[in-house]
Structure to design on (114 residues):
């Protein structure tokens, strides 16, 4: 089963969910802000995608981090920050079964579900 990870009020999440619904793709939605995120799963994402890909440096959560934390960011610190503040994870994270994908683009989703 396809799983979509993120938070419901994110505009990018809304676009992804609308696209999946419009194309008849069944999926389970996991609100990682409300339901949390297991460390083992996040570690697997980091191994597959890289912590730099998962870390959203554009959002308010990033800007609220202290300058020392932002400047000292590395994989270990990123894991800790993402577990404590799942809102800092770039959205959506789509688990298509075979692979994980970060972000939303109609073109990418069309290729994933072709």
């Amino acid at each position: 089963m396809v799983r979509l990870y993120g938070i419901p009020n994110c505009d990018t999440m809304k676009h992804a969910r609308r696209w999946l619904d419009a194309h008849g793709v069944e999926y389970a939605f996991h609100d990682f802000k409300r339901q949390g995120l297991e460390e083992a799963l996040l570690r697997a994402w980091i191994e597959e995608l890289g912590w730099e890909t998962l870390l959203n440096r554009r959002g308010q959560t990033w800007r609220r981090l202290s300058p020392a934390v932002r400047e000292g960011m590395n994989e270990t610190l990123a894991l800790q920050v993402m577990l404590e503040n799942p809102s800092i994870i770039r959205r959506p994270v789509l688990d298509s079964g075979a692979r994980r994908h970060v972000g939303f683009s109609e073109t990418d989703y069309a290729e994933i579900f072709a």
